[in-house]
Design brief:
This protein has about 300 residues and is an alpha/beta fold. It has a single domain, classed as Aldolase class I (TIM Barrel, Alpha-Beta Barrel), CATH 3.20.20.70. Helices cover about 30% and strands about 20% of the residues. The protein contains 9 helices and 16 strands. Strands 3-16-15-10-9-8-7-4 form an 8-stranded parallel β-sheet, with helices on one face. A 4-stranded antiparallel β-sheet has the order 5-6-14-11, with no helix packed on it. The chain has a two-stranded antiparallel sheet with strand order 1-2. α4 packs parallel to α5, α6 (about 220-230) runs parallel beside α7 (about 245-255) and α7 (about 245-255) packs across α9 (about 270-285). The longest helix has 15 residues, at about 270-285. The radius of gyration is 18 Å and the shape is globular. The two termini are about 30 Å apart.
């Protein structure tokens, strides 16, 4: 039974990673799980300088998920290079660094700083709905997405993954723009923009007013968008959005994803990603599937 997948020339031992912003760089989770069992670790967003993030409160529970307006708080590339990468290099897993920025120059600076770092792939976050500058503008305009993809690709030493926003009219237009810009893979979906109001205080629950909705509530939308993107482009797709069990992961793979990313589920169950890997293995055994790639995109019109 072969669980390995090849994403843009990088061989993962299995098709499961963790979603940026839900796992840090794995240091806390290392107390619970063997990080080396993951196909890859996708780190928190890393910017060229430290970001304080948005004011609090910035997280709220919702039916079937959660809203977050953390705003990509991170200590910056310097600290990341000094502490996070050395930790991850002690683990037998692929390292995907999530890169964030407010301008094209910000992204390029981080990508160039990572050019000699021992990391395997770069996930370019142009789709965060909680940052007023940069991210979401790049992620909602196909021409801007093409331009940032092309600029990053020209300077990146590692394969790049463009992370797409679901807050668009046509996800295939965005997927095609990223592919035309030269991306090696795409990941989707990021969070959907949402809002929550405290009816007793008559005020917004989040200081930012809006936040990104994640969790099981968004999974059907995510599966649909992954299916559409997989049938619109040739580059590999990493699917995410509400994955909390092996069945969810398999659904994404059957829709056309080459790999999957586990996010919000990590918050209430630190073992979620490992359970999903084991569940996919069981499904393959029970259904006599020798290669995980045999079921990828098996659901067609």
């Amino acid at each position: 039974m072969n669980m390995s997948v090849n994403i843009a020339g990088v061989e993962w031992k299995n098709p499961v990673t963790v979603a940026s912003g839900t796992f840090g760089s794995g240091m806390e989770y290392g107390e619970f799980i063997d990080i080396s069992r993951l196909g890859a670790v996708t780190t928190k967003g890393v910017a060229n300088v430290p970001w304080p993030g948005n004011p609090t409160p910035r997280v709220a529970e919702t039916y079937g998920g959660m809203l977050n307006a953390v705003g990509l708080q991170n200590p910056g590339i310097e600290t990341f290079l000094e502490s996070d990468i050395p930790f991850l290099k002690t683990k037998d897993t692929k390292i995907i660094v999530n890169v964030c920025g407010k301008t094209k120059e910000d992204y390029i600076e981080v990508v160039e700083r990572l050019s000699d770092a021992p990391v395997d792939m770069l996930e370019i976050n142009v789709s965060c709905p909680n940052v007023k500058e940069g991210g979401i503008a790049f992620g909602q305009n196909p021409d801007a997405l093409y331009d940032i993809t092309k600029a990053v690709k020209e300077r990146a030493k590692q394969p790049i993954i463009m992370k797409l926003s679901p807050n668009v009219t046509d996800i295939t237009e965005m997927a095609k723009a990223a592919e035309a810009g030269g991306t090696d893979a795409i990941s989707l979906i990021n969070t959907l923009t949402g809002m929550k109001i405290d009816i007793h205080k008559r005020r917004f629950v989040l200081a930012n007013k809006t936040g990104g909705l994640s969790g099981p509530a968004i999974k059907p939308i995510a599966v649909r968008m992954v299916y559409q993107a997989a049938n619109a482009v040739k580059v590999p797709i990493i699917g995410m959005g509400g994955i909390s069990c092996a069945e969810d992961a398999i659904e994404f793979i059957m829709a056309g994803a080459s790999a999957v990313s586990v996010g919000t589920a990590n918050f209430h169950d630190p073992y979620a990603a490992i359970k999903i890997i084991e569940g996919v293995e069981r499904f393959m055994e029970e259904n006599h599937i020798s290669e995980i790639n045999d079921i990828r995109g098996c659901v067609k019109e």
